[in-house]
Amino acid sequence: MIHVYTGNGKGKTTAALGLAVRASGAGLKVYFAQFIKGKCYSELTALKKFKNIKIEQFGRGRFIKNKPLSKDVELAERGLKKVETIISGKEYDLVILDEVNVAIKIGILKSAEVLGIIKKTPKSIEIVLTGRGALKEIIKEADLVSEIREVKHYYNNGTKARIGIEC
Fold first, then answer.
1. 110: closest CA among 138, 130, 86?
2. What is the CATH number of the domain that holds 149?
3. Can you tell me the distance from the alpha carbon of 69 to that of 140, in angstroms, rounded to the nearest whole number?
4. What 3-state DSSP class applies to 50?
5. Strands (E), 10-99
6. Does some domain include residue 165?
């Protein structure tokens, strides 16, 4: 099954993390690839406590505001190659591509490559794609799509990211 968690609201990565923990609790092996991200977030510390969850980051750890650098493209492509290897190895039951939709949207990954991997994913592997702005082509391939919509957010009142809640 293919899941997509998209939309402008907070909670897409959190939803994917919740699924990873649930899968781990059921004895499934989870591979969690974070695109764009490269800093130590609290979820990394938590997930290290689970023996059957592996998490890797493929980003420089900074928000890409303008045109992405060649290093951003290189890291994202390295991550996608790793995901392809993980999927073809059939060692993991759940594979999560965190922020992959954003990576496509800003041009550091090609949608055709991501779609190719999705289409080649064996039915025995559950795959999750997160991030704002999921393309129609990706939504069409998905079996489950959740759009997380912002109704109200305290960031708009000046609240900064808090450890354990946003980072």
1. 138
2. 3.40.50.300
3. 30
4. coil
5. 30-35, 53-58, 94-98
6. no
In this structure, is residue 163 part of a structural domain? Answer: no
Tokens of 147: 């759009």
In sequence order, the 6+-apart residues with CB closer than 8 A to the CB of 165 are: none
Nearest to 55, CA basis, from 33, 77, 38, 85: 33
Reported as type and span, the H/E element at residue 129 is: strand 126-130
Question: What pLDDT score was predicted for residue 38?
Answer: 67
Structure-block tokens of residue 33: 């690839």
C-alpha distances (whole Å) from 129 to each of 1, 66, 155, 160, 163 are: 11, 23, 25, 26, 24
Residues of the chain below pLDDT 70: 38, 40, 62-65
Q: How far is CA 79 from CA 17, 30, 36, 144, 150, in A?
A: 18, 15, 10, 23, 29
Count of other CB atoms within 10 angstroms of residue 51 = 8
Measured between alpha carbons, how far is 79 from 37 in angstroms, rounded to an integer? 11
Decide: 97 and 128 in contact? Cβ < 8 Å: yes
Residue type for position 16: A
pTM of the model: 0.92
